[in-house]
Amino acid sequence: MESKRATSIAKHSLLVNYYCAILLESLLTILIFSSSTLSLIKCTATVDLSFNTIVGNRNGNARFRGNNMPPDKALFDNIYSFTIFNDEIIISDNDRLRKYNNITNKVTTIAGGGYSNNYIENTDATKTRLSAKRANIRYNYNHETQELFISIASDEYVGIIKTNNTGNLFEKTGITSNSYGYEGPFHIDTNGDMYFVPPDTGACLMFYQNSTNQINWLFCDDDFSYGNIYSIVMGENRKLYYAISHLQSKFGFIKQFSSEEYSYTIVVGYYSDYYGDDSGLYTAVCPLGLQYDFNSKVFYFTDIIGDTNIIRKYDPQADKVTTLAGYNGYNSVDDGVPASIVKINYPRDVFYYNGEIYFSDNDSKFGSRIRKITKDGLVYTVVGSYSVDYVGMEAPDINCMAMVGAIYKNNYYFIDSARNDGSLMTVNSTTNKIEEVISKTGIDKDIPNLIVVKDKFYFANKTSIISYDMINLSYWTYTPLTLVANIKAFTFDFSTEEIYVSECGKNVSDIYHSRISKITTDGNYLTIVELDNNRCAISMIVNGSNIYYIETSFSPNSINSTIVKLGKDGNKKQIVAGEGNSDNDYILAKDTKLYGPTSLVMTLREEIMFVEPSKNRIRKIKKDGTVLTLTMTGNELHNPNWIGLYDNNLLLTNQVELYISDITLKCYGIKQMIQQIDHGICIDSNQCSCSSGWKGDSSCSKVSCENQNSCSGHGTCTGPNQCTCQSGWKQSSDCSTISCEELGNCNDKGICVSSNVCQCISGYRGSNDCKQFSCDGVNNCTNGRGSCIGPNKCHCPIEYTGNDCGTLVYNCYGKLGNDSTACSGNGLCIGIDSCKCNSDVYGLQCDFIPEIKYSTKVSKYSTILFTTSIKSFNLNNNNFSYKWSQISGTNTLDLNTISIAGTDKIDFGIKANDNNVIQGETYGLQLNITRSEILNGQLTVVSLPISFTINKSPIINNYNLLDASTNNPIQSSVVAGETNIKAIITNAQDAEGKDIEYAFGYFTSTNKRVYLSYFSQSKNSATFKLPLFTSGKAKVAKVFLTVRDELLDTDEKIVELTVTDPTANLNDNQLNNYIQNLVNNTNGNGGNIPIEQLDIATSLLNKPISNPNDPNIKQQREELRNTIVNSLVASSSSQNDTSTVLNILSSVTQNTQELKLETAITALQLTLNITNNNQQQQDKIVALTSQLINSVLTTTGSSSTNMQVSEIIKNILDSISKSTVQSLISGQSQLIQTNNIKTYLVKDTVDSLTKSLNITVISQLGISNLNLPIDALKTLFKNNRIDIANPVALGVNVVPNSIYNYLGQNITSPIFRINLFLNDGTSLNITSLLVPIEFETTIISSVTGNNKCWYYNEKVKALRLDGVETVVINSNRVKCRVYHLTDFTTAPQIVSPSLSIAKSTIVIGSTSKVHVSGANINVMSWLIIILCSLISVL
Question: How far is the CA of 540 from the CAs of 162, 177, 501, in angstroms?
Fold first, then answer.
């Protein structure tokens, strides 16, 4: 031991006398107070204790982790019984009733775990403390009520309490006598009658009859009166069975009670030491849990016969007992093992459910769980964790055997005696979570003391004093060689650094021996005093020159205890407390009776505090020798057995903290308590200096509000600095603020201007409290003409309107002006049939709203579009005509010549380039719209003027091409794939000074652009190389340098360079290796291959080679093409320049001999991605798709692959159609065609759509005599509120029939993909038309057979005939009549067609559907159909 532990403290001897007394039990780091601390004189003391939890959860048993735990994490303490119903397991767990729900996978508390002993009806079940250790939990077999019954151990309340199926509230049963409080098993039958074991009887049963509300004795089992009944069940024919056992002798029976004969007989049980399986009367048992299964007519029971813990069943029909689990006595506690080798621990209950056998498994060390025997004979845990570890949990939530505690460096420390042979644990002050410091301290749980001195923790066991150094992480153990008995207590004398030890117990001669000794600083062990026989010092502190200790009898039957004061030299023994028989306060402590005190401390004022666990209280001995019980506020204490004291700067806060080891049943924790001590200090004889809020010269016992201005004369002082204010004055600290609280604080509709006086806002002046609304702000609804229905809100009669009902209402075209739909909702009714329309609204009824969408600034080199939309009431009952004309401009424009579709369409478009407009000039156009109403012939003419300005293009002034390696200008020649080139635009400007963007690239040999640096703010290109254009020869390449402005107008400079071939002399292998290097070299481009390298590699791949049929060469080149395509997919450049990507894709896939199927599919998928993200380049996309079709639609490909490819191709065509429709104006059409794909789109109103069809183009598609049922389409559109005045578009795609190769059907014509689109490109999925669309086509295949028109059904992925009619014109030509729009073709008939024409359906996009009947229907049916259609669309 260190020899100079308290050198610095010894200099303050008077202070040390007081402080050391605290540290003996406080276990805290040393604090140094000034000597003035000791001048405190106590005047009065009002003691009021409250506490909060530092660590430990008292609301439950020792093994409880809280609610909502998953089953493998939940801890159970002692499962006595359980039941299963509706996949929920209800569990009696010591002092809690808990539930495991299989659906939520959580364990929750139904009842118990609280503090209160209150069992009053309609109280929260989880707030009540239960003592149901032996309760037999069962649901009422009347499943309609689903009530749960619980037994409660109490002499003050009824014996049975039930909770409803929500588990929230307690209710009393019909048992009203409080004479039957008990904690035994019971059974409730279907009549609500109850059989139960009364208290202190064991082998007797009582009967409660629900119908008469009477309780009667049933019987006592006199043949086995020393046993106890542990389970009661009802069997067949309402026969009662019970399990009765004597646990000490491990012997028992299952018996049947006959209510008719009032007798009991043995069913299972035999007086024998042999407990193997046999018949019922020849099998020895010691049963606990018992259940009868009505389905199998078998008893299941738990058995602790002999040294075994097993699960058994008894079959009465076969008279056979069978052991189901645990009978081989193995020790396996794992899951998934056969029932025959599993170890079972004290199974208290069993339950048969859904073919599986559930049982409780209770291990005293590791906790309880519910397990089951599955149908295949294996054992698994259902709920419960085989562990009690709580490290990492929140400190207040855990349960632990916390013997003693301490504070060290602002963290709480405690020893858990039940964990790992006594673990030293800590509560991390930052995270508030539990951490383990020392796994095994070796502390004895009967020596509750823990002391901290200079970074060392001291604790003890029966033979040694042990310290643990928190700095060096090392142990020191002192074992006295002259011990005469076991160590019972120890303490520390900080003034001398000596340790005092109490020994108690029998010595080697089996004689009781007790003494107090000390360990000196030099390691000697000296006796201080020998105690009387059978007496023991169980808690000690040192204060100055004295030792204080609790002395108690060592006899097990005696509770006589005293508190003794002894000089440190062993002399002057004096009893301080415990010689009398009184339990009163304010008497001398020596005259009081002590009830088993276990721990004591001393305060700075030399007042001794001690705990009495059996009384759940803390008491103190004051300096005048009297005793006082410290009263409690807040939660109650339960069996506190240890106390420590830490003075927290007493002079400043008047507070001390108490740390209590608090035991409730098996629930342990450390509590923090705060004690208010005084209301002042004595400064002279009978003169106090009172604390704030108190007054009184000699007692400081009167409350004061002087600091609150004596409540400002508007209140009464009712507490220290606490005022109770008069009515009309706010309950503030000094009652100086006016209040209107009695007037509801003016109900937030006014301000409080005086005491209980409100000044209301307008609209709430109808009462003093501003609660009643009024209409004072709107002339009281014009003097009562209307009704006031809210604050300044009037309800006017029908003929008046306005906020104040002061305006007369006119009638406009059958609707009153205050109707929101008057004047079509777009204007005001200002007179009889006189509407004033809103801006840009026309018509007598304000029902005509045209709008032109256009850009005010446009490019000469782009198509200039003006699109018009019309909204109109009864829109489809009108005819419209249109005329565009020029109204201003520097030069006159020939609109008919420069227009795209003429000047008599709803839309107007000006061609790009050749349009005679002048850059920088402004032009004005006007659209005249004439509306003719069909019903009354009324004309409405609207003129809509617009103006637009032609943009000025940007200009490039200076530019250059540099050799990036030397930074010198390039003269005229470069090497393909090797010369590094950089393009620079040194000076360019926009005509209006706005920002411009720069782009750089070159033209391919087919004059297609390859962008090397797409449009950005950078004036320099990235370094690039040029590809090879013509094999083996020099070729002139064109490099472009481009700028563009906001409207995409451009200026461009072209530089021509001669490009030579660096691979002219390479053989095929060398050429492939050269290309391989190109496609593998990212050149620091972030993992992506530069776009120009891919183009160079492609150009080299397309060179003629010597041995194209060499399989190795071919394979290499296939892989190279595949690598280039995959690089394009991954290339970041592909996100910007889709035109270049399409060019390279087209080039790299043109040689189909070197193209693998997966490469072609990848290229096709990339094409689709580009199509979806780019509404331009339609021609290129169609051309590329056409090129890839033959490569991807192969006869060797799998059916699923061909189907995937087919869907990609169709998606590409749909996306192209949508973007093309969006770019067309009314009256315009466009044809995109390749050798195997044709796409034709035409846009116009429904009325004009047929007229706009180009018959020549239609015939080129392979279709003739295309006939659209215009009237049927118009009717369908009108019924579905689609504006027929606005344009729609017809799309026809013709693709090879090979896209449906995977169907395995002989298709004899191309695939015709016919669609209708709205103006914005939204597709219309039209099915089951009333009148068909007709077209003729020619059979192009030589396949013989009866050719029919077919359509492709997207849902079943097959060709179908329903909804399609075929008119055979001749052997090579047919007419198809189709009632819906999809893919059509011809093929020989395989099965009989199933024609079904029932409904006309239109689907906009892929969501809304409107069904219209196509059969003969009456007018009312039409109205219903139209109404449903409107609702569906809306």
Answer: 49, 49, 9
